[in-house]
Amino acid sequence: MLEIKQITKRFGAFTAVDELSFEVPEGQIFGLLGANGAGKTTTFRMLLGLLKPTEGSITWKGQPIPLSKIGYLPEERGLYPKIRVDEQLIFLAELRDMKRKDAKQSLLDWLNYFQIPQYEKMRVEQLSKGNQQKIQLISAVLHKPDLLILDEPFSGLDPVNVEQLKTAVRKLTAEGTTIVFSSHRMDHVEELCEHVAILDHGKPVVAGYLPDIKAGYGKTRVLLTTDAPPLLWDALPGILQVESDGTGHSLQVESKEAADSLLRHLITEGFRVERFVWDQLSLQDIFIEEVGKRYEP
Question: Is the pLDDT of residue 297 over 50?
């Protein structure tokens, strides 16, 4: 597994990452989250060996990580626009100790997987943004890495291309690739990741197995459609937050017991209840609670 133990990175008096620890089980996807400037990119650079931790250690199966075993999809894309797809991707794979023959076959396999074999000898600048993103992902996985780092992999993509890349990510984990994944889209992280860490100003404020994290909050969310007046929410205990739109209400309540009490009150008072669904807080709720409150004036 990938083990991050108490890593700290300082730049002079500024601490970018502060005593960060987490483990990523082999063949799973780990979500590393945080607002802009939280320390995610610095952490990725330490994983890649571009920066050395001021303190702490990073190991893969108990040993330093060989660069040839890592794949990296950066947030800022880095392919050369005027060079052919096959020329640059095979070259990049050779830099990671892959034989040219094997790199060619791996490239063809991935192009066929995405159903874009016609792009093999085209220049990157001739491709759409979505197809450039697929080629960028292929460049990160062509050499069959054990560890793959994805920094905002779905940024700017349309829903069809997002789903195609999600499918590819699941394929990689099914084949045993371990993935560290960062995104500002909490729904994508929640869908793909079992383990997460949320950074704030370089420090982990939440870390662990996502279902356990959710269960530990106790709070819950209720999706409600009713003819009860909005003023009712102010009069009932246990309701922490209310969001309303044309289809109903989304209420954050302090416990499942508070949700049950709300339902009993609505029925007792004779209000019509067309929908009442309760669930644990979403990852976005948790992120806003842990990170957003630190930005309150």
Answer: no
